[in-house]
Amino acid sequence: MRSIWRVLLLGALVLALAGWAGNANAQLGSLKKKVKDKVEKKTDEKVDKKIDETLNKATGEEEDTTKSEESKEAKKKPAGQAKGGQEGESSEGVEAMKPGEGVWVNYDFIPGDRILFFEDFSKSPVGDFPQRLEFIEGNMEVAEWNATRWLRASTEGDFNIPLPEVLPQRFTVELDYWGPTGANTVEIKDGTDQSRNDSRVELWWNLSSGIRGETGGKAESDMPEKVKKRVSHCRLMGDGKYLKVYINETRVANVPNATFGRAKMLQFHVWAEEDEPLMLTNFRIAAGGKKILYDALMADGRVATQGIYFDSGSDRLRPESTPTLKEIGTMLKEHADLKLLIEGHTDNVGEDASNQTLSDKRAAAVKAYLVSTYQIDAARLQTKGFGETKPVGSNDTPEGRQNNRRVELVKL
User: Fold this and answer.
1) pLDDT, greater one: 204 or 314
2) Which pick of 36, 160, 165, 345 has the fewest CB atoms within 10 Å?
3) What is the pTM of this model?
4) Could you give the CA distance from residue 120 to residue 284 in angstroms, rounded to a whole number?
5) CA pair distance 154, 152, nearest whole angstrom
């Protein structure tokens, strides 16, 4: 379309100006260039605007001209993990909630405590297929939208996520998902026998009921209408044959007898169309998950958790922290003689002093929550922030930085 309009406009100008004499020919060349540049600029602006309108409309982010510039900028903040510790973006409708409130009361997902793979595509060039994934087939590339990088699929396709070790019996998978219609589906396979119906987990967009997830053909519930206009965070928790699937704060599948195999990779199959793209980001695969915290603490004297989340750059606890905080509070109530040191740790992104202060505040926030919510005697809990001084992984890799963002409990 851009080329057709360019030819028509330039052709009309050439005919209208053909009779000019003298230095008019010189002026014509300059005028042609200005018109050409103007046409290209206006066309690009229209195309960009149309793309933005389509994406924003599909995700419920249509521009409101009455809002302040600050509100508009706030929309551009990226989702997922940020520097300094376990962090996350607010979910629609739960921004003011604390752990254990509202829809999060019965939420029971606990992430694995050792990160095997993390990818947010922040280091991948836009327009390329990410090098850390294994391309099989389809049309997929990195795209930038709202200051976040995504893997954008516009056809049916397949890719693998290689893992450094065989997926353990207890594991978790997390990712952010956006797909506007029923044409968008993500199928996560275990990388072994793909002929088995229960060796995969499906997440798809249903026009009548919103996003839905299932494993082995068994689904617990559909998502409500509200998820249709926002990016959703999808989670999978496996423990032996037990599989649970969550979308945002809702468990959508609960299967105790799945045969999801274990391999050194996870396979992904996607369905999408050019005008209805599927977008994925913030892949996070971890070993471990829901377990008996007290047993681990008694065995090793300390335990690290990846399940306590904070707002970005803040010590405010996020509601997704509910299961981990509940387990810690219950453990302390059941074992009245147990005393703990709560440690805050960060990666090396940001200023050393800021990370140190933030880790101090976050450890204190965990203590304050346990004291106020579970009536734990404050004298039983000590806190200390270590900033970036005690890494458990390399800060040169995404997985290392993720593992370094943690809260540790130490038996006193």
Assistant:
1) 314
2) 165
3) 0.72
4) 9
5) 7
